[in-house]
Every structure is written in structure tokens, then in C-alpha cells.
Design a protein that fits this description.
heterodimer, A: 91 residues, alpha+beta, five-stranded antiparallel beta sheet, 5 strands, B: 283 residues, mainly alpha, 66% helix, globular
Chain lengths: 91, 283
């Protein structure tokens, strides 16, 4: 089951829950079209206790299951892109 | 919810109903005969107005990128070659024969063809399948669902409701309600029609790779599973509120990792206008 099938509106962006391939839990924040730099960020627990790490999606792709990457990028395209895909349902 | 029915009886009941049109059977026979010529194929296609018209509509769509309008089937056959024509004719005919399907399902089937083609264009795991062939696999992958829509529409609606309510992938819900899923029905139908083994195997296993008895065909089934996942995520599912499979096993079979997915999706997103155009062409 793809975990990222529920997106919530947060300001001008979207937020979804993500589980990385190693089991680390985090959030994906989508803030603009795929072409814009740092338009998708992954926020997760950092290495130090209590720390939070925020990284561009492109830098953590190798830690994300492929089906989740598909879900993230399709959501971003449906919300911010111009390829005429159906609009995404947002909670 | 109706009780699951005897699967063998159900399959027997269903797969004996539609038969492959004689014209198509003849075309496939010719295309597989090394002694036949493309002009013979062109003549047979031209002799069936419905198939000829659909083939020309598909040929002239942007998907095939031909310069100038193609107005004769013989010309189309020469331009595109036997393999592409086989897929075109098969696709046009199968969709035509079973055309009571909902528009959403047509659109999904075409989108899956486009997605499968984008996966193959990535060349990540070599040239195991020509992108245009992959397109035909995607188009045909849900023929079992068209059968269910035609012959068991009430049960299919129940299964789709169950899928939405319980968050189950559609094929799992179909097994709960009907006792069999569209992939198995489609695979059996493809075998019954004597379509190439690779197509039948891929259709049969596209939601359950363990069903693929021949490792040679596993990448094709995985390609269809991954293409299906892309379509659901892109908002082009076969029914409203569809739940995607966990396709990670399929991506693993294909040897595709997350850093390679943006390029595949770039190609897919750029091809979205074709989906609408082809939906119009075949519906």
C-alpha cells in the first residue's frame, strides 16, 4: 500500500506522511512546481536526539521506496504542475 | 456482498463469451507467418471497415508522431511495420469488441500504455521490450476488467465500493466479492484468444507477480504493475477512488530505483495530452 495517498493543505503547500526505506518516519512538504529548486522537502528526525532534519527531496531519493517517490512526484505535478493531470484531492 | 462463486465455473462462463473477431485472428496469423507479406496484412485490415477506421485514427494520433496524414491502411502498414501494426490492430479491435466499458477505464488503459512506454523508454533495464510494444501491453492490461464491466457489472460495482470503504486495492476487493480478479480473467482471456504468451502472462500477473510462471515474462508483468501505480498516483485510475498497489516489488524486478523515477515521470507527464487524444480516438 502506498502510504502517501492522503495530503493535507498547509498554507500554500501540501504535507504528506512518509516512511523511508529504513523505517524512518517523516513528512514531505510540497511548496511549488517540480522545476522550482527545493520545492519538495523531506522533514525527518535528525541523528542527534530531538533534532529535526530538513532536506530537499532530491537529496534523499535513494532512501525513499520507488512507489512513494511516484506518489510524491505525481501529487506535486497534480497540484502545482501544468501537465493537465486531474487535480489532487486535498484534505 | 455476494458470496464468491466457483472460480472455474465463472471463468468458463465468462471466457467463452467474447471471441476474437475472425479478421483479427487472420491478421495475427499472417503477421506470425514468415512467408506472408505486409501488403497482405494491409489488404485484410482494409477489408474490415471498423478495424481500418480505428487503425487509421490511432496511426494519425500524436502518439505515433508521423508527419502528414495517413489515409490508407496499406500506407500505415508500410510506415509503421508489422509489429506496431499488430499492436494497433489488436488494441483497436479488443477495445472495439468490448467497448461498453466506462470512459474512465478506457482512459486508464491508455494512460497505462503511455506509462509503460515511458518506463521502457528509460532503458534502465535494457531493451527487453520495444516502447511501442510496451504501449500495447499497457492498453490491454485491464481487458479482464472490461469483461467484468460487461458481464458482472453489479458485482464489480460492489467490489469497487468495498475497495473505497476498506482501502483495499481493487483486485483484492474483486477477489473478496467475485472470487476472482480482473487480472486472472484477462490473462485467461488472452490465452483463450491465443495472444502471445508474453502478453497473457503479463496481464495475468500484473497485480501478483508470483502468478508469473515464466521468469522470462516477469519484467513485463512488473512493468504493467508499475505503470498501473503511476496511473493511480497521477489521478488516472480505472475507477473513482482506486487504491494503488504497493508496487515496490515491481520496481525491484525492473531494477529501477527512486533516483531514476523523475526521468520516467518527465516522459509520462509530457505525454498526457496523448492520453486524451487517444481516448477520443478509440472511444
Amino acid at each position: 500500500m502506498i502510504l502517501l495517498n492522503e495530503w493535507k493543505q498547509q498554507g500554500p503547500g501540501l504535507v504528506g506522511l512518509l516512511t523511508l526505506a529504513d523505517g524512518t518516519e517523516g513528512r514531505v512538504v510540497l511548496m511549488g512546481p517540480r522545476s522550482a529548486p527545493e520545492s519538495a522537502m523531506v522533514v525527518m528526525v535528525g541523528k542527534e536526539p530531538g533534532a529535526v532534519e530538513s532536506l530537499p527531496l532530491s537529496e534523499v531519493l535513494d532512501r525513499i521506496p520507488p512507489a512513494s517517490t511516484v506518489a510524491i512526484l505525481c501529487a506535486q505535478e497534480r497540484y502545482f504542475g501544468d501537465s493537465q493531470l486531474p487535480a489532487i484531492d486535498v484534505q | 456482498m455476494s458470496a464468491p462463486r466457483n472460480i472455474d465455473y465463472l471463468l468458463e462462463e465468462i471466457i467463452t463469451l467474447p471471441s476474437l473477431p475472425a479478421t483479427v485472428a487472420r491478421i495475427l496469423e499472417l503477421l506470425n507467418d514468415p512467408d506472408s507479406s505486409l501488403s497482405e496484412v494491409g489488404k485484410i485490415v482494409s477489408g474490415d471497415p471498423a478495424i481500418a477506421l480505428k487503425t487509421l485514427r490511432l496511426v494519425n494520433s500524436a502518439a505515433y508522431g508521423l508527419r502528414g496524414r495517413v489515409t490508407s491502411v496499406e500506407h500505415a502498414v508500410t510506415l509503421l511495420g508489422a509489429k506496431v501494426i499488430q499492436n494497433l490492430v489488436l488494441t483497436a479491435t479488443v477495445l472495439d469488441t468490448l467497448s461498453s466499458g466506462a470512459r474512465l477505464l478506457f482512459q486508464h488503459s491508455i494512460a497505462a500504455g503511455v506509462a509503460a512506454r515511458s518506463i521502457m523508454r528509460s532503458h534502465i533495464f535494457g531493451n527487453v521490450l520495444d516502447p511501442e510494444e510496451a504501449f500495447a501491453y499497457g492498453l490491454l492490461h485491464d481487458i479482464g476488467k472490461i469483461i467484468l464491466e460487461d458481464y458482472m457489472s453489479d458485482e464489480l460495482v460492489q467490489a469497487e465500493d468495498l475497495s473505497r470503504v476498506q482501502g483495499l486495492p481493487g483486485h483484492v476487493a474483486e477477489r473478496e466479492v467475485i472470487g476472482v480478479d480482473h487480472a486472472e480473467i484477462g490473462g485467461r482471456l488472452a490465452m483463450n484468444w491465443r495472444l502471445p504468451d508474453s502478453i497473457a502472462a503479463a496481464i495475468m500477473a500484473h497485480h501478483d507477480l508470483a502468478r508469473c510462471k515464466d521468469d522470462e515474462y516477469l519484467p513485463y508483468a512488473a512493468m504493467l504493475n508499475a505503470a498501473d501505480t503511476i496511473c493511480v498516483a497521477a489521478g488516472l485510475p480505472s475507477y473513482e477512488g482506486a487504491v494503488a498497489d504497493d508496487a515496490n516489488g515491481a520496481w525491484q524486478v525492473l531494477g529501477i530505483t527512486s533516483p531514476q523515477i523523475p526521468a520516467i515521470l518527465d516522459d509520462f507527464f509530457a505525454s498526457i495530452p496523448e492520453v486524451e487524444e487517444l481516448t477520443e480516438a478509440v472511444s
